[in-house]
Protein 1
Amino acid sequence: MLPRFALSSFRRAAPSWRPAGPAASSSPSWLPPAAMGAMTSSPPMHHQPPPQTPHQTTPTRHRSSRSTRGLYDGKDVGFGNNVPFSMKKTRRRWNPNVQKKRIYSEVLDEMVKFHVTTNALRTIDKMGGLDNYLLKSKHVSTKGKGEGQRTRNRIVQKMKHREKLRQEAVARGESVEEWDKIVLQGKKIKTAEEEA
């Protein structure tokens, strides 16, 4: 048996959001206010979901510091269980297939060392070279201290410098049509006429 003061809390007045009229008076007085609110047509304001704003984005997946150093192409360490016949699970991890490779950059005209996954190597071939991959891939950000970010920033600086030199040559009245015909061979630069 509940004490008398506990029963008085169930007999509170109807909430302010509850519609007045015959529907309000017909509900039993012994129901708690939460149950009376469920019977009415309009729910309280604190039960409605907050409105969605257009700038809200889905949370990004956590990346390990190891995967931010090299070119991992979105691959990272996976976690799970070894499940034998006895069903006694033990924790384990799946490491990405990371190799140490030297990859050629056409803009920098040099071989650059990377810690790169085999998946990233396939993507580099598919995108047409290291420079295109670093400039267009969503897995290589502009900020950070990883191998990909550093090389990407060097490529962007070199491209800006080349464009500045091209604009200066145009201002001097020089022809820049042959600039695109330069063939890179290691450290030597040869034009199309020298090759013939």
Protein 2
Amino acid sequence: MSDFIPIARILLKSSSIVVPLIHEPSSISQCTYDVFLSFRGVDTRKNFTNHLYTVLVQVGIHTFREDENIERGKNIKDEIEKTILHESKNFIVVFSKNYASSTWCLDELVKMLEHKKSSQHTVLPVFYDVDPTQVKNQTGSYAEAFHKHEESFKSEKDMVQRWRVALKQVADLHFKYNILDSINTIF
């Protein structure tokens, strides 16, 4: 765990991250959570995302993670949608190799971006063991995932297209926040 904490702290010290997470407009100051974490559990739940969550909480950023904050017996999809639309100030999306294989993750991403259009919420991408261009251009494991989605959702091509657009839009934010440059200047 200690190997990941310095990385997470570096991410948090980057002015492009701390400012959106801490200083929110008054229109979203009534939210329950400072951050909603979106991630592919099989890839990052027990490593990077767990450590990132721990550090966020340690520094006082109230963070939603679905395996920690949804009560047993609740409808998970409804609870996550309510948390995205009404209870979270900002969103951190942890992209990993299998993120695009999860329609659940892709649906969350679309909801976040739809909500962002009508609010002042921040969507912050983090790329874990995947290149931002792979996410943006949907190559490698992302291409494989979309090949399967297009087969499985032949009658719902609009939905698959919304997922593609959402990935591109959030990957483009990587260049806006320029997280890698912040980390590289510290080392």
Protein 3
Amino acid sequence: MEGGSAGKSVLKVLKKCAIFVDVRTDDGDDAGGLFVDMLRGLGARILARVGQSCTHIVYKNGSASTLTRYRLLNDPKPLVVGIAWVVECVEQRSRVDEVKFKVDLEMVNIAGTNKVCSVQVVLYTLMSLRSTEATFYASEAYVTGCWVKSHSSQSLVRS
């Protein structure tokens, strides 16, 4: 451990991690400050934006620009984890395995919007439209990132 200027001790368990934090409330307000402080207390380097040097993204209700920047990165891409990963690292006082804390960026909520559509609403709408209108509706759902759950396979499919 290394002593801080205010008498706080800083662990170095995340010293090899360069982390971007995008945590927001459902209304889109920044709520990442607490997680930034926790990560710094574990020795992580906090980044101002997603970039190629980024090893992790802590994401909850983040902005669309974070998703865009992530998708534009070359491989290997950073690990995208939820806030529970940060909490678990603090509780364990070590870097915990990220696997069970991974965030699927294809199914995330973007702050202030709801990107997951009700399957009943989508199916009802498609059944009530003529085929050309249904095709347009399905295309629009794809463009806006709307997802539906397939009844037959119970897997997530893009409409």
